[in-house]
Design brief:
about 300 residues; alpha/beta; Dihydrodipicolinate Reductase, domain 2; 2 domains; Galactose 1-dehydrogenase; Gfo/Idh/MocA_oxidrdct_glycsds; Gfo/Idh/MocA-like_OxRdtase_N; NAD(P)-bd_dom_sf; nucleotide binding
């Protein structure tokens, strides 16, 4: 198949850490242009723009990866689709479910691809966990997702603003794994959201889930205040006594206390392989399940004010 000429809109930490090196290493893609309001550039890009709309005027650009904060992503993705470009959306894919639905409908109308990328799903351990749990009734689920915001999001003030998702920016990774591996849908039963006194997005969250069948103990704890070793674990127990634990963000798997998968994460490599397949097939892939759980957590969440937090 022909080489995909691609542009990146937004050159923040995730674009620099993941998208740029992965695109460079993938023989199916060529980075043609980048756009950054801060004037950042990259040596592999032939063109650099301050205004993303100038990037979209390039006729050779087939697709764009949008790595901006979610609050502004909808309009950029809309403009890209109207300009005839397919779109890869970093997570979270938009600021609201309505925006994402609009992009899905517009992509179908103009015949372009929209791809929602839930990177934590792209691990062999996650696939194996899904297979192991298929057909079983879940008795217990415990998600523990605790990390240091100062380390992973230095200086990113947008993440604390309304629409920035706060602790759900990493927490949605855990939810994307949960929606992938659970043998039946889960729902938000209750939600307690801790907001620093000086912030408009939560720094911690405690969630309880329910299912259509059974009354299992299903919980999630997200916290952005953990220093030292970081915790990204998901523990599951079935009614039949099968125990399963995903660790290291979904890259390692234990079943019955035995290590089954232990791999270094290669999530973005898999994302771009999938994007190549979707572009060649001219097929969109829009998974709203993790996003819906976040929206529900905010919709029924109890707001708890905690101490002010400074970066």
């Amino acid at each position: 198949m022909a080489l995909h000429q691609i542009g990146i809109i937004g050159l923040g930490k995730i674009a620099q850490d993941q998208h740029l090196p992965v695109i460079k290493a993938n023989p199916d893609f060529q980075l043609l242009a980048v756009s950054s309001q801060r004037g950042l550039t990259h040596e592999d890009a032939r063109y650099t723009f301050l205004d993303y709309r100038d990037l979209l005027k390039l006729p050779d650009i087939e697709a764009v990866s949008i790595c901006t904060p979610p609050q502004v992503r909808h309009q950029i993705a809309r403009d890209a689709l109207v300009a005839g470009k397919s779109v890869l959306l970093e997570k979270p894919p938009a600021a609201t479910l309505s925006e994402l639905e609009d992009l899905k409908e517009l992509a179908a109308k103009v015949g372009k691809v929209v791809f929602t990328t839930w990177h934590a799903q792209y691990n062999k351990a996650v696939d194996e966990a899904k297979k192991a749990l298929a057909g079983w009734t879940i008795k217990r689920l415990l998600v523990t997702w605790k990390e240091d915001v100062r380390h992973w999001h230095p200086g990113q003030q947008w993440i604390w603003e309304a629409g920035g998702f706060g602790v759900f920016d990493p927490g949605i990774n855990a939810l994307s794994i949960v929606t992938r591996i659970m043998p039946e849908p889960v729902f938000i039963k209750s939600s307690s959201l801790e907001f620093p006194a000086n912030r408009d997005a939560p720094i911690a969250a405690n969630l309880a889930f329910s299912m259509s069948h059974g009354q299992g103990d299903l919980q999630a704890v997200f916290d952005w205040r953990q220093t030292g070793p970081q915790t990204w674990d998901i523990e599951v127990e079935t009614e039949a006594g099968l125990t399963l634990k995903l660790t290291h963000g979904g890259s390692c798997l234990e079943i019955g206390g035995r290590e089954v998968v232990k791999e270094d994460p290669a999530e973005y490599q898999a994302i771009y392989r999938r994007f190549d397949e979707l572009l060649n097939a001219r097929q969109s892939e829009v998974d709203t399940a993790p996003f819906r759980l976040v929206a529900d957590a905010f919709m029924i969440g109890k707001r708890v004010q905690v101490d002010a937090f400074e970066d």
